[in-house]
């Protein structure tokens, strides 16, 4: 499998784990030093552990991922780093209410031996042109 296909598979695994609300499998797709920049938060999260703690808090408040679809995928290989960009349609439940989200996401993957782990995620809202 070529490197672009490996990155696409790593991203597909991450998205599938997220879509199925499988926290353990989802967070296993990220390096421990991964960083996260989400438009819904006032500041970046600077580690996987920090995001996991926030995720657990969200779940305690009734958050759940009900589905997630990726489209318009682009992959850019940069040596030991790959940039995965896509549009993402997410269906969530938050405090008993369901929401459909349309966002754009960049996930940076870093080669770790023979596989790729996400080391940065940036999520932004899709705005009308």
Automatic annotation (TrEMBL):
Residues 7-126 form the SnoaL-like domain. It comes from the Bacteria. Pfam families: SnoaL_3. InterPro entries: NTF2-like_dom_sf, SnoaL-like. Gene3D superfamilies: 3.10.450.50. Coiled coil: none annotated. This is Nuclear transport factor 2 family protein. It comes from Pseudomonas promysalinigenes.
């Amino acid at each position: 499998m070529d490197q672009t296909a490996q990155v696409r598979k790593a991203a597909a695994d991450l998205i599938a784990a997220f879509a199925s609300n499988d926290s353990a499998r989802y967070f296993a797709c990220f390096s421990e030093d991964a960083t996260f920049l989400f438009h819904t938060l006032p500041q970046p999260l600077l580690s996987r552990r920090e995001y996991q703690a926030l995720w657990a808090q969200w779940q305690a408040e009734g958050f759940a991922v009900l589905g997630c679809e990726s489209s318009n995928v682009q992959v850019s290989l940069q040596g030991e780093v790959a940039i995965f960009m896509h549009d993402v349609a997410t269906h969530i439940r938050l405090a008993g209410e369901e929401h459909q989200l349309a966002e754009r996401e960049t996930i940076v993957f870093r080669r770790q031996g023979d596989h790729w782990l996400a080391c940065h995620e940036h999520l932004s809202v899709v705005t009308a042109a």
